[in-house]
Amino acid sequence: MTELLLAPGAPHAADAPVLELVGARKTYRTGAVEFEALRGVDLRITTGEYVAVVGPSGSGKSTLMNVLGCLDTLTAGTYRLAGEDVSALDEAELARIRNRHIGFVFQQFHLLPALPAWRNVELPLVYGGVPAAERRERAHDALARVGLGDRVDNRPGELSGGQQQRVAVARALVGDPALVLADEPTGNLDSTSTADVLSLLDALHAAGRTVVLITHEHDVAARAGRVVRVADGEVVADGPGRAVAS
Ligand code: ADP
Ligand code: MG
Known about the structure:
Elements: H1 2-6, E1 17-30, E2 33-46, E3 50-54, H2 61-68, E4 76-81, E5 84-85, H3 91-101, E6 102-106, H4 117-127, H5 132-145, H6 161-173, E7 179-183, H7 191-206, E8 210-214, H8 218-221, E9 226-231, E10 234-240, H9 241-245
Parallel strand pairs: 3-8, 3-9, 6-7, 7-8
Antiparallel strand pairs: 1-2, 1-4, 4-5, 9-10
Helix pairs in contact: 4-5, 4-6, 5-6, 6-7
The structure holds adenosine-5'-diphosphate and magnesium ion.
């Protein structure tokens, strides 16, 4: 069911929320100390939306993304992904959803240094059980799409930061996910590489994917159709891109 509902262009998907948080709370416990990183977040994101999440450091943006990406679970409240209550799913099902439907891009690239670019890019397909020859072809295609067709055999250390992030974007899109989550993907990049990565996200959105971009840079957020502003674990503003971003 999840597959059908998440597929770009699914007939009933246009106005149904693909991501829905209701009263979402996340409490971290460190020893005896508790910290409430999400304090009752209500958020609905519809298939095909491009949403930027902005807010100061420590406001709960990464916590929110980890929940949306099924990397972490809520302490209270509900998270429905394509209509399914995520709290009802076990770790294997969550892993399967992450692998099949969600592409992740992180600030720190998270590439494996010992592997050439194409081997990094094929990893989601390895976990997805795709045959080796097809993996190789799709990884090479994905690298060509991010403009790195001539760098497939380079290891991350042989690439610039911007190129490494494009490898990470290729890895995020190789499995053709319906949802792309990017957590400060341009935070470590110069302005040229930032523009490259943002263009790639724009293209993913234009191809029908739902994109959630976390950033603290307002000019970056202004590219999205909608900006959600978070402060102290709460949504404090939610509206059209340019209005809320500035
Ligand atoms: P942001 O991404 O907006 O900078 P985070 O979601 O990373 O914010 O963190 C929100 C708050 O939760 C911060 O105060 C942070 O210190 C705290 N926090 C995040 N992760 C953990 C964790 N694993 N254990 C304890 N506290 C955490
Ligand atoms: Mg963060």
